[in-house]
Design brief:
single chain, alpha+beta, Conserved Hypothetical Protein Mth637, Chain: A, five-stranded mixed beta sheet, 36% strand, globular
C-alpha cells in the first residue's frame, strides 16, 4: 500500500500525472471539478499510471479540494 499527495489542476488540455522533486504529484485533469467528475478521472489516471485496477485507488482526504491524499492498494 502506498499513499501519495496529489495537487489536482482541473480543466487541463490533456490529462497527465507528474511526480515533483519533493515526492508529491501534480495531476492535470481534463474534467471540470463538477459532480465528482475530476475525482473519477483522477482515480482512473492514477490506476493507469501505476498499473492497478481503479478499485485499488481511493481518495483518503481532500475529495472536495485540490490537494488530495490518494491511497494505492497492493502496490
Amino acid at each position: 500500500m502506498k499513499t501519495i499527495q496529489v495537487k489536482v489542476k482541473p480543466r487541463a488540455r490533456e490529462s497527465e500525472l507528474e511526480e515533483l522533486s519533493d515526492g508529491s504529484w501534480v495531476a492535470r485533469i481534463k474534467a471540470p471539478p463538477v459532480d465528482g467528475k475530476a475525482n473519477i478521472e483522477l482515480v482512473t489516471l492514477i490506476a493507469r499510471h501505476f498499473g492497478v485496477r481503479k478499485a485499488q485507488v481511493s481518495i483518503r482526504s481532500g475529495a472536495s479540494g485540490r490537494l488530495k491524499l490518494v491511497r494505492i492498494e497492493d502496490f
